[in-house]
Amino acid sequence: MFEFINSLNMASRFRWRTYKAIVLMVLVAVLMVSVFQRGLVSSGGDIQIERNARMQRETINYWKAKPDNSAETTVAPVYERDIVRTWDITSTNCSINKNVTSTEGFKTLGQNFQQFLLYRHCRYFPMIMNHPEKCSGEVHLLLVIKSIISQHDRREVIRQTWGKEQVIDGKKIKLLFLLGTSTNEVEKANHQKLLEYEDYIYGDILQWDFMDTFFNLTLKETHFLKWFSIYCGNVQYIFKGDDDVFVGVTNILEYLESSKNTKDLFAGDVLFKARPIRKKENKYYIPPTLYNKTQYPPYAGGGGFLMDGPLARRLYVTSETLELFPIDDVFLGMCLEVLKVTPIRHNAFKTFGLLKDKKSKLNNEPCFFKSMIVVHKLLPPKLLEMWRLVHSNLVCTVNHGLMWEVAKDQQQQL
Known about the structure:
Pfam families: Galactosyl_T. This protein is of the alpha/beta class.
């Protein structure tokens, strides 16, 4: 390799430019393949073959000419009268709010909470990647998945399994991923380049210019609600979840059909009378300075929930009236409380894992997954394995032992 580079340095300027372009193209292609293979190597099979073939077809076209998304034509959706029709934030000019440093209890907070309070007023950021065409025409179900820039493998397995865009019984299903920017300053430029290439292939990424941190998940929530209110007047329902969930799309459609007369539909793995966690070592710790009530309003676990389009637009308007809160699913519960909408608890949403007993054989029972809407905490190899089992010639009979185990666990969670 070093001899090759030295020979290039000795070549003419014209040949150097030509070889440099070729080497760059090959390196990027190899890098993309290696990134997408992470977490799926043990799975192998048709998905890997299909993915690699697609990337080989697209690589040359990508480097010849990037697409001009501004030239795309879409069917204009129906918008509500008083809402803007384009993303209206083009730059970020946000400075520290020094006034919060004098508030009671500020100096006792950890650095992460101090940073959150210093910049909590910064809630509007530009879009880096936008796909308004996803909401063109009548869309029955929009699958919206929170992800981070380095988790290419999770997005890939979702695209090829339950997140595949399709039409079922005349009902159009579309897919989007929500991202911020990389938290790795050293690799930030490389990560962004890889994401651009990924979006070139799939065209399903919404990205905003804020850092993808845990506390910024609430920004991701509010920015999506705004985006939806601008572009998605014709979308009937939204499934919103994480990128490590197993989803039964046909089960979602059946549930939505049975709930079509429900106004302000919001369903999931709902927690009632949940208490703020006061242990500092816990990921979800909230200091009394930030929230001094003894209970949260009812909220659905952020791993996966359903809501109807009109309610999503109302949630956006309400979110503008509340101060941001570090936990995104609790913040959404606060918005629902203002709207006087009570979320519906449904046992087919398992966003906090299957059972408390992690050794239970039910955690690997495909017949259980087949009956669920959402199951949380599956990494790509496990998700792919379970997907194939559920969609094989699976024969499920009533197992009273397993049913009793489910019923007992659900009772403990109430």
